[in-house]
Amino acid sequence: MSTTGPPHRYTLGVLHGDGIGPEIVPAAVLIADTALEAAGAPPVTWRELPLGLRAIEGLGEATPKSTLAALAETDGWLLGPHDSAAYPEPFRSELNPSGTIRKHFGLYANVRPAKAFEGGNAVVPGTDLVIMRENTEGFYADRNTHLGTGEFMPTPDIAIAMGIITRGACERIAREAFELASRRRKKVTVVHKANVLKLTTGLFRDVCREVALEYPDVTVDDFHIDAMTAHLVRRAHEFDVLVTENMFGDILSDLTGELAGSLGIAPSLNASQDRAMAQAAHGSAPDIAGRDLANPTAMILSTAMLLDWLGTRHQDEALTRAARIVEDGVSATLAQGTGTRDMGGAAGCRRFTEAVAASIGQL
Ligand code: ATP
Questions:
Q1: Residue 183 to residue 285: CA distance in whole angstroms
Q2: Catalytic site includes residue 226
Q3: 222: which strand partners?
Q4: In terms of DSSP bridges, do strands 109-115 and 128-134 run parallel, antiparallel, or are they unpaired?
Q5: Nearest Cα residue to atom 16 of ligand 1
């Protein structure tokens, strides 16, 4: 802590989730503990809370109200992936756990970096960009109405979806993007589809352009979502911060994750002004769950993002240092050729995690 007084003691929530969650979340906790100790930060108190399939079985709710109440008392939390498509009805049709938590706490900014590590099997080496995805509205039906969803089926053969874009939500995500770019390579790219979705994504583009005027040091350009995908495949390394609406951001970040090496290394943070949740960009990967094949990197790096966010918020240099140590540990591990199967390596989740911990010990 930079100011006077005793250091803040952090309590962080731990939600294992489904599929590979119970493998990758404990890995992230272990690496965070190792890095915090290496950074000279006081240990964090971890608070495990029920969510997902096990919460349905034990408490009759996928996202228990008791879990939401407990999270409100923490400084932030780690959310493992959930396999809501496998939930029994009525839980499968409800808003999924991640959507419920994002909505409950108003986590409007989904920050998704894509960084190519040496030895990390990148499709576009040198990629180091961040997608700033608006998280509360857009064309995802679960985010855009007060009651029910934004999808309708007037007859069994007609389905209608609606999207929502508001000036307020565009302004706050644009500001997050420009603030972030100010601390990075000072370039923001606005991604939209204003030639077709003229009013909605046109408003998004225009508001981002207006906010850009407040940041004369940051260069801004904009692309249609379809052109953007093509540019990324060829030259992802040239982009810095991309700001976009919800669905485009979701799709683009899977692409950039893979371009940077693997979806298994793509981290994310969901944040508002005063709350943050670490969540890997990938899903619960049920095809490999329980087999020690999962890549824990995305969850580990998401946790580093949470530590960094807390470090900035509390002006706590030890936490900021711990976040950097986690990244350096992952980077050193990949550079020495240790990787999981999705990255072309042979290490399991456990062995990879041990290797990262050992790397941190040698930094
Ligand atoms: P969601 O809709 O929840 O994002 P999804 O079905 O689109 O889920 P994922 O669960 O992310 O997709 O899985 C996509 C593919 O990537 C699967 O083959 C999965 O095994 C693989 N994958 C995802 N995450 C990891 C990981 N951490 N380590 C290794 N492979 C992964």
A1: 34
A2: yes
A3: 190
A4: antiparallel
A5: 285
Question: Nearest 5°: CA angle at 342, between 338 and 343?
Answer: 45
CA distance 247 to 216: 28
CB 264 near ligand 1, within 6 Å:
yes
Atom index in ligand 1 nearest the CA of residue 284 equals 10
Q: What is the DSSP letter of 161?
A: E
Token duo for residue 323: 């976040």
* DSSP assignment of 28-83: HHHHHHHHHHHTTPPPPEEEE---THHHHHHHS-SS-HHHHHHHHTSSEEEE----
Selected catalytic residue, list 10, 87, 193, 240: 193
Q: Say how many Å lie between the CA of residue 146 and the centre of ligand 1.
A: 30
Determine if ligand 1 sits within 6 Å of the CB of residue 298: yes
Beta-strand (E) ranges in the chain? 11-15, 45-48, 76-79, 109-115, 128-134, 151-155, 158-161, 187-192, 219-224, 241-244, 269-271, 276-279
Give the separation between CA 181 and CA 220, rounded to whole angstroms.
10
* Spacing, Cα 296 to ligand 1 middle (Å): 12
Whether residue 159 contacts residue 94, with contact meaning beta carbons closer than 8 Å, is answered with no
Q: Residue 305 phi/psi, 5° resolution?
A: -60, -40
Largest CA distance in the chain: 65
Domains and their CATH numbers in the chain: 1-108+268-363 (3.40.718.10), 122-260 (3.40.718.10)
pLDDT string in tens for the chain (363-residue length): 445 566 789 999 999 999 999 999 999 999 999 999 999 999 999 999 999 999 999 999 999 999 999 999 999 999 999 999 999 999 998 889 998 999 899 999 999 999 999 888 899 999 999 999 999 989 887 777 777 778 889 999 999 999 999 999 999 999 999 999 999 999 999 999 999 999 999 999 999 999 999 999 999 999 999 999 999 999 999 999 999 999 999 999 999 999 998 888 999 999 999 999 999 999 999 999 999 999 999 999 999 999 999 999 999 999 999 999 999 999 999 999 999 998 889 999 999 999 999 999 998
CA-nearest of 270, 292, 302 to 341 is 292
